[in-house]
């Protein structure tokens, strides 16, 4: 089992579930990539914690205005309809349930929907940012992640061993091998790579994958395989 | 995505019997008269919506706007800070007759409860009303040696508000003191409908001066040259 | 004892204690009159609950813009530096202790500093507005009032019999006869009309007036006597 | 009343040892570099202020701004949500050596605690951090069947912030995402000093577009062409 989705392919798959006009927050780092793959004819409106709604793509190198950045401190651009606001209003949008979707990275996701994505333990400098707010604010909290860690350990688990970001908050996980929903404290497999068997997938998953109805084929654009 | 509607009728079509409705405005400034009157017209035609709980700073003035809603018998309960006005007869008579309920909330607490509803804060502590009749039955807690009352968030099914400019994405500006509760109500209701004096394209409002970002707004309807409640009342207007 | 200050004179006296640059909220009705009497060379900045700071005087009749009003729903005007904001920000100014002075009317003030000014009992329609917020927000809460009710009952009392607006909040009362401070649960007389004796003043006051040091003469401009 | 100061030295003169200081900015956007560097210069000359508690979203980047304050040993404690950056070495080394304290606060909770400090709300409930290590020791209360953590207001002795325009009365506008925490911090500190890129006369800023009304501001100092922290860091700048 060597085949798996690239990060771009995972981000592409997550982007397919975002509806036209949805208000979306993308976590810093890998999740930011989701913005690149909005399906034709749909336009999401992106929110960033630091007070910008409806911003545009990254500027060309050299064209950055460093007062116009996202939560990852990357330069962004204006679009018609962009709005600025302060941090309390920004998190009113988050905490008040005004965002349709938040897409975040993860160290671990538990079958209960618990998420661990801010700390791998007491060593080093802890940093949480807006993740704990987002997981209890957005109407739908999804995770994009490799299916396993770099050392091959499952990231989908029965219970998180890393410090929690939020309890029972994740409803869908897009991994490098599968799309898995959290339903009533269980993982329910929705899609998997055609080339991987149920047994192989279960073997790299730390909790039981349930099947309810059909399991779809997880097929992403080939040209993103190396992206 | 274009949040612009084409008629006032459409703008108020989905408010159900028994709904809680936040209505912007402080006195006549910011009162969305055309939206309110469209709602009254719907009620007069169809008998619905009725049994409404209305949240506004006041309880109507004269015989237009919220006063006219009360006069028509659409309102079961008012949540407000100051149910008095130049001509509060409509509310006063029904209140004294026991035909309308009143939840009286200090003005700053009313504003903060609405903000809390929009910001996902289910409860907060305020020094306002400590030791008064309006704190009765509410938890009191001490912080740093001083007593505070715990107040709950306030949310609504609908908000009807008036803004100055609105773009197709729902970004809004207001006009002077007509801003008042409207930016808060826009955050605290399930469905937020805004009458704007001028509907514009996205990008026409400077991103720095947007007061209500579009995420809070569901629909806008342009009402050019809107009526001003105070002026209607000074002219002795009635609706209908 | 027929001589007493006019409302304009009481308002004038209260205005003398407002410092240059002070942020001030004037209650609706009689207290609004204080704005007329700013001493030469001082400029207070007036706040109104409905979201305006630093506004100007009433417009000429016929020049009103009814979207530009104060909390009493009276028309006001712009001045250089006026700012608009929403109601939550307005009461953040109040509750957060950013106002230097609030001047309010009263039904009764107790020697404990308790204030009753919003309800005279269960009859009629109750209305509270922003008074309960102001009394616990402004750094200094002062009252302007006639010394007695229309029926001659004292308004300065040992304990309020009307429903309270706030507990222990008033620190100074400007009446038609005297200036009285609330100090440690006692009324301390600071100024009185020269023509009234201590005994006469005490007779129309519902709680003991204490004297600490000199009692000043309460002298207001004669030309305001009929205003 | 004119809140304009004539020098940066004057602007930071009264910050005492052990003070709590809110500093605006999110990463480099909105960081009041000139005010911070004036404070560092004062410390280098006089040995004061030291033992500061600094509130900011981050904990500095590179060797300018807050990082430079930490590097000079002026900071006893950081209250922030994200003490990481492109070059967090200064904070990281001191933190791991136990030479600086850290109070880690979720970003939305940090913003709301500051707002609460400015708005006279001593405590509020938030769903954020429920069931996590960051809720340890905090009261939890259920509302409508869901658990919430009670958080306390956050106030400071001083706020140092950066704005775009400021008039003599202290009315402010900001520039794009450089707004972030600054309007909140302006409400929550005893003494608020603002570096503005352009100082103007009252009336020059449209009353509709003022973000921070002057009531929250104690002093402004014009710093035309201010440094941008991100650009300083990309150029490898150090202060001093």
Pick out its properties.
heterotetramer; A: 227 residues; alpha/beta; Glutaconate Coenzyme A-transferase; 10-stranded mixed β-sheet; 3-stranded mixed β-sheet; 4 helices; 24% strand; B: 240 residues; 7-stranded parallel β-sheet; 3-stranded antiparallel β-sheet; 7 helices; globular
Set down the secondary structure blueprint:
The complex is a heterotetramer, with 2 copies of chain A (227 residues) and 2 copies of chain B (240 residues).
Chain A: H1 7-16, E1 23-26, E2 45-48, E3 52-53, E4 83-84, H2 87-95, E5 101-104, E6 108-110, E7 115-116, H3 131-134, E8 140-145, E9 156-157, E10 172-175, E11 178-183, E12 186-192, H4 198-203, E13 209-217
Parallel strand pairs in A: 1-2, 1-5, 5-8, 6-9, 8-10, 12-13
Antiparallel strand pairs in A: 2-3, 3-4, 6-7, 10-11, 11-12
Chain B: H1 8-11, E1 20-23, H2 33-46, E2 52-55, H3 65-71, E3 75-80, H4 89-96, E4 101-104, H5 107-119, E5 123-126, E6 140-143, E7 146-152, E8 156-167, H6 182-188, E9 189-200, E10 219-222, H7 229-234
Helix pairs in contact in B: 2-3, 5-6
Structural write-up:
The complex is a heterotetramer, with 2 copies of chain A (227 residues) and 2 copies of chain B (240 residues). Chain A has 227 residues and is an alpha/beta fold. Chain A has one domain (7-224): Glutaconate Coenzyme A-transferase. Chain A is 13% helix and 24% strand. Chain A has helices spanning 7-16, 87-95, 131-134, 198-203, and strands spanning 23-26, 45-48, 52-53, 83-84, 101-104, 108-110, 115-116, 140-145, 156-157, 172-175, 178-183, 186-192, 209-217. In chain A, β6 (108-110) and β7 form a beta hairpin. The longest helix of chain A has 10 residues, at 7-16. Chain A is globular and about 50 Å long. Chain A starts with 6 loop residues before the first helix and ends in a 10-residue tail after the last strand. Chain B is of the alpha/beta class. Chain B contains 7 helices and 10 strands. Chain B has helices at residues 8-11, 33-46, 65-71, 89-96, 107-119, 182-188, 229-234, and strands at residues 20-23, 52-55, 75-80, 101-104, 123-126, 140-143, 146-152, 156-167, 189-200, 219-222. In chain B, the strands form 2 sheets. A 7-stranded parallel beta sheet of chain B has the order 4-3-2-1-8-9-10, with helices on both faces. A 3-stranded antiparallel beta sheet of chain B has the order 5-7-6. In chain B, a hairpin with a 2-residue loop joins β6 and β7 (146-152). The mean pLDDT of chain B is 98. Chains A and D meet through α2 and α3 of A and α4, α5, α6 and α7 of D. Chains A, C: This is 3-oxoacid CoA-transferase. Chains A, C: It comes from Thioclava sediminum. Chains A, C: Belongs to the 3-oxoacid CoA-transferase subunit B family. Chains A, C: Keywords: Transferase. Chains A, C: Pfam families: CoA_trans. Chains B, D: InterPro entries: 3-oxoacid_CoA-transf_A (IPR012792), CoA_trans_fam_I (IPR004165), CoA_transf_BS (IPR004163), NagB/RpiA_transferase-like (IPR037171).
